[in-house]
Every structure is written in C-alpha cells, then in structure tokens.
Amino acid sequence: MSSPTHQSVSNTPGSPEPGARGATVPVWLIVLMVLLLYWGGIYFDENGGWFNKQVYAPYKSIAEVEAYQPVRGGIDLSHGKALFESNCALCHGVDGMGKPGQAPPLAGSEWAQGNPAHMIRIPLYGLTGTITVKGNTYTGLTMAAMGATYSPSDLAAVLSYIRSSWGNKASPITAAQVEAVKKEVGNRTVPWTPEELNALK
Prior knowledge:
Blueprint lengths: L26 H21 L5 H4 L5 H6 L9 H16 L23 H10 L1 E7 L2 E8 L8 H12 L11 H11 L8 H6 L2
Antiparallel strand pairs: 1-2
Helix pairs in contact: 4-6, 5-7, 6-7
C-alpha cells in the first residue's frame, strides 16, 4: 500500500471547485484591538473596584473607621467617645461595664437609656445615694459633677455616645436639651439623689 499524499487545493481559473488560500488580517485592525483591550483594562481598573484598596483594605484600624463615621443628628459620636474615654471611663470602664465599688455599669443601664432630662442632670450636678442598675444595688457611691465644665455640645456628644454604645439603643441628646435643663435647674450646688430624679417627670 502506498501512503496517502496531501495535495494543496488551488483556486485555478476555470476550475469548478472552490479553492482555499491564505488571508491576512490588516495591521490596523490588530492595533485597534490591542488599544481597545488596553483602554478596557484601564477603565475596569478605575471603575470596577477589584483592585481598589478601599474595597479590600479600606481602613487599618477600628479607630480609623470611627473617625470617618457621619455625624448623626448634629451629634459627633467620635468626639463623644474621645471625651468619655478621657474622663468617664476611669470609673465606668471603656466597655461601659462599670467598676465594683466605683461606678455602676452604663451598658444596658436603664438610667443611661432612660429619660434624657434625668441623664443630663447627673453629670451636670452629680449624683449621690443608693442606686439600682440592672437589678443590682449600689450604695455609698457619689458621682461628682463631671460634666459641669463641658459645653452643651460636648456634654450632648458624651451622653449620646453612652446612649448608643455597648448595645444601648436610646435616642441621642442634643445641645438644646442640655441648655434647657441648665436653664430649668439653675445654680444648683448639691448632687441629685436617685429618689429626686425618679420623682421628676
């Protein structure tokens, strides 16, 4: 048997059968395709977000995330947190859980989440006496008027931070509410007692 031979098909004039011949792609078409692919890659890189650091690693720490949080209702909670941690956390703890013999917890506290007018009075004028928080009774504790030197907006920021942190879900307190309480109470010089605050509307 003889091995098969391959013959090339030619397109000779007058031949009834079609023939095949090589065709070349224009150079300008190849250049255009490369340019379109290049432009598409740049567009995707800038708009697709797959390679954007703000998508995969937007922030380096929790503090950086909190610094970019929007101001809610005119209250800057990040400023309130800073004030809380530099003053209130000494006794109430950074986590709001309080410290035995020093201060009751603020996390889950019915006082912290209760009547805003009561909450404002405590740091403005102080608190003394026996107080019950989350079913636990705290006796012999006295809180000084830690917020008396704060501006209304600063005190509002601290209290709003407390009322929205550690699982607390109370409404924010505004500077106008702080000013209203100061105007109503006037120049009080003695701390409130829990009984007095509970008697208020």
